[in-house]
Design brief:
Blueprint lengths: L1 E5 L3 H13 L3 E5 L2 H8 L6 E4 L8 H10 L5 E6 L4 H9 L4 E4 L4 H14 L7 E4 L2 E4 L4 E4 L2 E2 L4 H12 L7 H8 L10 H13 L6 E3 L3 E3 L1
Parallel strand pairs: 1-2, 1-3, 3-4, 4-5
Antiparallel strand pairs: 6-7, 7-8, 8-9, 10-11
Helix pairs in contact: 2-3, 6-8
Protein name: Response regulator transcription factor
Keywords: DNA-binding, Phosphoprotein
Length: about 220
């Protein structure tokens, strides 16, 4: 899942982003509304976490612009404005969900995952292929009953491959959906992650390399 965090409180933004990355999400951070629109014009995100009281372009205007342009990401407003009227207004300008500050981090994660499921064709929470089982809710993957010790990136790549249901997923797609803006597209990071994942999955091999195309299960 790729997330854009739009929050002018820099320390809070980076703290939340770090926590979401530990949950296996790819997170980019911007500090104002104009930067948010600039970033969404060039990148695809599953969910945009949007503060309302932003410097420059107000969060409500950012939301209206995204909705008006048909941008496919879901919008979660995360803001100190927490009255009923605030929520009604935020949802009225196009937000898909609204979470007042202060908030429980576990609730934020749950809401983001629920929104991401709505931003693309719905997938079951448990993906199964033969003796391989991946539970996106508990973040547990097993093979033949054996729990796999996967890093957040390895889990994300495995989830993307299973979600493709046998279709080929290119390295570029994996990089776009599984990493944040700091990933270098010219590195071997996807290839290295696939290699580690193959070792952890064991035999018989599950991940096939399709020359000049990508990978599939």
């Amino acid at each position: 899942m790729r997330v854009l965090m739009v929050e002018d409180h820099e320390e809070l933004a980076h703290t939340v982003a770090a926590g979401l990355r530990r949950e296996g999400m790819a997170v980019d951070v911007v500090l104002d509304g104009d930067a948010a629109l600039d970033r969404t014009s060039t990148n695809h995100y599953d969910v945009v976490i949007l503060d309302r009281d932003l410097p420059g372009l107000h969060g409500d205007d950012v939301c209206r612009s995204l909705v008006g342009a048909g941008y496919p990401a879901r919008v979660l407003m995360l803001t100190a404005a927490g009255t009923i009227d605030d929520k009604v207004t935020g949802l009225g300008v196009g937000a898909d969900d609204y979470l007042p500050k202060p908030f429980a981090f576990a609730e934020l994660v749950a809401r983001l995952r629920a929104l991401a499921r709505r931003s693309r064709p719905a997938l079951p929470p448990v993906l199964v292929h033969g003796d391989l089982r991946l539970d996106s809710t508990t973040r547990i993957a097993t093979r033949d009953g054996r729990r796999l010790s996967l890093s957040p990136k390895e889990f994300a790549v495995l989830e993307l491959l299973l979600a493709a249901q046998g279709a080929v997923v290119s390295a570029e797609q994996l990089l776009e959906q599984g990493w944040d803006e700091f990933a270098d597209p010219f590195t071997q990071t996807v290839k290295v992650t696939i290699s580690r994942l193959r070792r952890k999955l064991g035999d018989p091999p599950l991940i096939e390399t399709v020359p000049q195309a990508g990978y599939r299960i």
